[in-house]
Write a structure and sequence with these properties.
Blueprint lengths: L7 H21 L4 E2 L1 H7 L9 H11 L7 E2 H13 L2 H12 L6 E3 H16 L13 E3 L2 E2 H12 L6 E3 H10 L1 H7 L4 H14 L2
Antiparallel strand pairs: 1-2, 3-6, 4-5
Length: 202
C-alpha cells in the first residue's frame, strides 16, 4: 500500500503538533537543553516501559553534536524533519535512529533492537515475563528475527553483514514492505507524542 499524499488538514495537524512541542520544550526546559531522562519524561515515556529503548535511540538521533543533550535548535530541526522532510531525509534520520553507535552502519543487533522495540510499543506489556520476542509475530506471521533476516537479505547488497546508509535508502525506496519497516517517523514517534499529550492532561 502506497504512502497517502498529505492533505491540507493533515498538514495543519502537523503544524499544530510541532508548535505544541515547541511550547512544551520552552516551558519544561528553560535551560534550553534536554538530557535523556528529561527527554523520556517530555514524551511521557516510562523509563522501564516498552518505548524506553526506542526513546533512547531517538534521543541520540536528535543529538546531532553528540554532547548527550538536545538543545532547542536540534529539537526544532529534528521535529521539522520528522514531520515535514521529504522521503530521503526521513530515511536518513531513521537510519540514525538504527545506527546506535553512530559508526555509519547498521548491524544485525542494532536492527533487531529497534524492530524489537517497535514490537513492544505496538503490542504493549505481554503476559509472559520473558523479554525475548524472537518467536513472537510482528508483521503478519513473521517473527522479529525473520523480519531482520528478510531486511538483511533485501538490503545488504554487498553481503558484509552491515547496512550502509545508501543500502538502507535504496532498499526502502525499492520495496514498499521495506519502506514500511525501516521508516520510523510514523507509528512509534506519533505514539510517543500521543503519550505526551495524554500525560499533559493529568
Amino acid at each position: 500500500m502506497g504512502q497517502a499524499q498529505p492533505t491540507e488538514e493533515s498538514e495543519e495537524i502537523d503544524i499544530i503538533t510541532i508548535q505544541d512541542m515547541y511550547k512544551k520544550f520552552v516551558q519544561e526546559c528553560p535551560s534550553g537543553r534536554l538530557f535523556l531522562h528529561e527527554f523520556k519524561r517530555f514524551f511521557g515515556v516510562d523509563p522501564t516501559g516498552e518505548a524506553s529503548e526506542y526513546a533512547e535511540n531517538m534521543f541520540h538521533a536528535f543529538d546531532k553534536n553528540g554532547d548527550n543533550t538536545i538543545d532547542f535548535l536540534e529539537f526544532v530541526a529534528a521535529l521539522n524533519l520528522v514531520f515535514r522532510g521529504d522521503l530521503e531525509h526521513k530515511l536518513r534520520w531513521s537510519f540514525k535512529v538504527y545506527d546506535r553507535d553512530n559508526n555509519g552502519f547498521v548491524d544485525r543487533g542494532e536492527l533487531r533492537a529497534i524492530i524489537n522495540s517497535i514490537y513492544k510499543i505496538k503490542k504493549g506489556p505481554k503476559t509472559s515475563t520473558s523479554t525475548d520476542t524472537s518467536t513472537s509475530t510482528l508483521d503478519g506471521q513473521m517473527t522479529v528475527d525473520q523480519i531482520v533476516d528478510r531486511i538483511f537479505q533485501a538490503v545488504d547488497s554487498d553481503g558484509d553483514g552491515s547496512i550502509s546508509v545508501d543500502e538502507f535508502i535504496k532498499g526502502a525506496k525499492q520495496d514498499p514492505w521495506l519502506l514500511n519497516m525501516l521508516k520510523l517517523d510514523i507509528k512509534p514517534t506519533i505514539w510517543m507524542m500521543e503519550q505526551r499529550r495524554k500525560s499533559a492532561h493529568f
